[in-house]
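Team,

Forwarding the record for the chain on the shared tracking sheet. I've put the sequence and predicted structure together so nobody has to dig through attachments.
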Amino acid sequence: MLDREGVTKFLSGENIRCRDTAEVSKKICDMKKDGYSALQILADFDYTISHCRFEKERMSSSFGALERYSGMSEEFRAKTRALYDHFYPQEVDPNIPPEVKVGLMTEWFTKSAGCIISEGVSKETVKNAADTSKVKLRGKFDVFAETLVREEVPLLVFSAGVGQIIERVFSNAKISPDNVKIIANMLEFNSEDNAVQFRPPLITTGNKSTVAAQEKEYFNSHIDRVNSILLGDNIEDIQMSACVRNYSKNVLTVGFLNDRVEDRLELYKSTFDVVILNDPDFTDVIQLFECLQ
């Protein structure tokens, strides 16, 4: 039986905005009937699993962990900072058409990746950058991850960030890898442990649906997981649903709106089933997950 009180509590949370509470309630009801054995989680990493800001301070993305690392050259940090200052406002600008934004984000990620390779980054540098970075997992994400392990619900982390940084952040936080699959930009190293390239294709915020099409083995192995919760912070993260739409009964989409809230709230509400404001911890997501119990 659906816990209507729990659903109402979730939907009426101070951080929650929803375009259609009746539709969301119906999805939750349908997903609950199927149980956790039919569920999977699809999640972005940067500013979704991790905080955008914490105690009013801007946190780093996984690319930012390398770009801000003190062990990198001043020239490298200046170049990547200039790229961020130029492209980030465009990433969060709701007035730029999606087809234009895809090209801009591809240019940004390609140039940033080129800077990292030109810097001659080593495995040790990547590890140290992650360990000293301001990449901060949202509070209670560890609780959520432990619950997924206990309930045997798979978690796909689908990120346009740096894969090794994500792996190291998870390892430092003791996030179990048992039920986690990470699709991200993985650095490849030579015999001297220096990065020589990112494993193609380069994942950007705008091409996740294309990359997902190449991950048939993973999705085919979870074809019985007919219900999905999608977690993202960019409008383009909705593309992650493309990889499960063909066999899904329900995809419940959740968007973290961290920046330019007033400008983008209506856009997010029209894109995601549920929008989460105020850059909170994972309490709201845990409440949603418990509604399916």
